[in-house]
Amino acid sequence: MMTDSMSTPIAAKLARPELLELTPYESARRIGGQGDVWINANESPFNNSELNKLNRYPECQPTSLINAYAEYSKVSADNIVTCRGADEAIELLIRAFCVPAVDSIACFGPTYGMYAISAKTFNIGVTNLSLTKDYQLPNAFAQQVGDAKIVFICNPNNPTGTIIDKDTIETAIASMPNAIVVIDEAYIEFSPQYSVADLIPKYPNLVVLRTLSKAFALAGARCGFLMANSDIIDLIMRVIAPYPVPLPVQQVAEKALSDNGISLMEQQVASLKQQGLRLTASLTKAGATVLPANGNFVLAEFDKVELIAAALKQAGIVARAYKDPRLAARIRFSFSSQTDTDRLIAVLDRLNQ
Ligand SMILES: *Cc1c(COP(=O)(O)O)cnc(C)c1O
Question: Which atom number of ligand 1 is nearest to the Cα of residue 111?
Fold first, then answer.
């Protein structure tokens, strides 16, 4: 499949060449076998945990978890890889496609910092492009990314909370057919109508990243998903660890993706958005300029940001400020519970007096 040059899939064209030759590690778990005495993996026969089979290596890609995410995302199970959070997915993509000291990635800032950091840890170049002042893709972005192997677009964007409409994202994917275009949908549950996951069958260069860390309230579990055409999936499987998903993580993830789990998530998303509206009103009243919030956070710009920062600190409220000069005088507030929001609003109201 990866050798036919007439129809070389984009994954093979862009892959680090040595990966195409690589025989992937065959873990005992992957080789498998038939029988009831399992002595092929140097595991302990003793299970000292309440969790069934915790003494055994887990499946590399737990079928029931992949199926649960396929059902939730409406993406075919063949097009999904699960890993330790979207952060690991970013790293896997860079390791699969980028040759150190030769290749580069591109991203549009201000945006999530891990694209650039992950690239730099592998000595991969970073083309840092800027979003427009309305946080949209700049003109002629396809030329600006040059020969970047991977182009990251975060939608909704962290930390601005802004969104790029679906048609524009589709145009971007179509206009960069010689790059892997990664749409990071870490916050998509807060704006599901913007997802491009349904475009995966249409674009061989599209990758969509997802996570259970945000709307699904499982940041501590470390569970994310990379979704793409099967050529890209095959390549990712060559660089992924033999056992990326711990058994307890698989179990909590599957519970989160059950019907009950999904409706709990939807309820909590609605409630967080509600608190977000209260917070936004209060920030506006305090004189901040607030961007429309399409995720579970809002970015606010203040005239007297030091005053706000000091008041928050004194009240024991930890929000996020940035070093990027494009984000000067801005603070990002994650939406939280009613009680947390009450406290934050009280601090902002006091400043108004
Ligand atoms: C939080 C976040 C991630 C990381 O998600 P994990 O699954 O927790 O690794 C990735 N991308 C963006 C844009 C994020 O905000």
Answer: 13
